[in-house]
Amino acid sequence: MTIAAILERKGSDVVTVTTDTSVGDAARLLGERRIGALVVLDASGAVAGICSERDIVANLGLGGESLLGWTIERIMTSPAMTVRPDATVDSALELMTDRRIRHLPVVESGQLSGIVSIGDLVADRIARMRAEAAAMVEYVQRA
Length: 143
Prior knowledge:
By secondary structure, the protein is α+β, with helices and mostly antiparallel strands.
C-alpha cells in the first residue's frame, strides 16, 4: 500500500500557512480546523517547514504570551520531513516512529500534494490486518 492510495481515500486537502503567519493565527487555525499541524510554505510555495501543536507548546515557555505575536518561522520544525506519494505506508510509519513525528507532508516534484498523519497510516494498517485475517479464516474454512 502506498501513500498515494491513502490520499486517494482521504483526499489531498492540506491546510497551509506562510512563514510570516503569526503563531496566534496559526493556533486559531489549528483549533478551528481541528487538526494537529500546518504545512508552512515559503514565498515560492515550497514546503519550508511544519508547525504542529507540539511546536507551539514547546515554545510557550520561552515566549509566554508574546509567543502569539511571533511568526511561525521562529517556531516551525524545519526542514520538514516529507514523503513521496510512491512511498509505502510501512516506510512512512517507520520514518514517523524513528523521528517521533505525527504528520508527513507529501511532496512530489517539489510540489505539496497532500499530508498524512500517523492516525491515517495506523487506520490503514489495521484495515489491512483485518482483511488478511478474514482471508485466512475463509481459506481455513474452505480447506
